[in-house]
Amino acid sequence: MYVPVNGGGYETWQQFVVEGETGPRARFVHGIHQSVTPEYFKTLGIPLKAGRSFQLRDDARAPKVVIINEAFSRARFSGENPLGRRIFLEGEKKPSTIVGIVGDIQPELPSQPKPPQLFAPMAQQPVPVLAVFLRTRGRPKSLAGSMERAVLRVDPDIPVFRIRTQERVIARALASKQFLTALMSAFAAATVLLATIGLYGVIAYAVAQRTREFGVRLALGANRARLAVSVVGQGARLLVTGIGLGVVAAFALTRVLSAVLYHVSPRDLGVLLLVSGTIFVVGIASCCLPARSVHKIHPAVALRAE
């Protein structure tokens, strides 16, 4: 059986053709084929959307049946009811009847689209490799030994390996994404910090270079608050230019950014506004510090210094 999020078990990619369709409508669906037991969906909490689940009577002597997921239904039966339709599995001469539709199962990475999937009863299509799932109310790790002994009592030659909790499976599957996210966040934080320090340095240097100018203007009756605002305005213009270039670069790198984002589009207007607003606020704060030095300039001292 297939292990959600992490793959594993026994699965094959196959082509599926709907019985009785010819001409332009005769096309196949390329998706995942796997065999499961009747309690597979209930154990993993996969909802049954329509029809029925597998039952014990779906054995080797019963008519062949299959269950498809919603992605399969959308890909091949959009706008139609697939229940009762019969499809041919690649390489098989007898069709199987669709008896149910279940929710989509997340593939190995959350950013990947959910593929079409078809499930067959294990009793009708046995496979050589199994993944066994257990749902428990207690500590899952405490059942590892009991589970292994139970399997060995059935057949001592069956190897039992890779006993893991589903939480660990999910954590391992997301580890690379989480590391990449943390790394990108660290680089982003360092970039904002360096940009803030750089902007502060530029504005502070500009204020120092204009000390005599400010002294003259103050001696002529200029308002200190307006001079401070002009300093902040100089930094704001630099910020707007930099943010504009950053937004343009984000749109230009859409394909690269899409590979490392989950449920967030690189062209998401809300995210771009939030990030741009945050950078603008932090930048303005860094401009306010050198702007405050304008209030400390004494006209006579500034002129004598020159």
Name some characteristics of this structure.
306 residues; alpha+beta; 2 domains; six-stranded mixed β-barrel; 9 helices; 46% helix; 13% strand; elongated
Which percent band covers the strand fraction?
5-15%
Helix/strand order: EEHEEHEEEHHHHHHH
Number of H- or I-type helical stretches: 9
Integer-rounded radius of gyration: 32 Å
Cα separation of the termini: 83 Å
Q: Segments where pLDDT lies below 50 for 5+ residues?
A: none
Helix content: 40-55%
Give the number of DSSP strands.
Answer: 7
Structural class: alpha+beta
Mean pLDDT: 79
Biggest pleated sheet: 6 strands, mixed, barrel
Short description:
The protein is α+β, with helices and mostly antiparallel strands and 306 residues long.
Describe the structure.
The chain has 306 residues and is an alpha+beta fold. It folds into two domains: 12-133, no CATH class; 174-305, no CATH class. It has nine helices and seven strands. The chain has helices at residues 40-44, 70-76, 144-154, 166-209, 211-219, 224-252, 254-258, 269-292, 299-305; strands spanning 12-18, 28-36, 48-51, 65-69, 86-89, 96-102, 117-121. Strands 1-2-7-4-6-5 form a six-stranded mixed barrel. Strand 5 (86-89) and strand 6 (96-102) form a beta hairpin. Helix 4 (166-209) packs parallel to helix 8 (269-292), helix 5 (211-219) crosses helix 9 and helix 6 runs antiparallel to helix 8 (269-292).
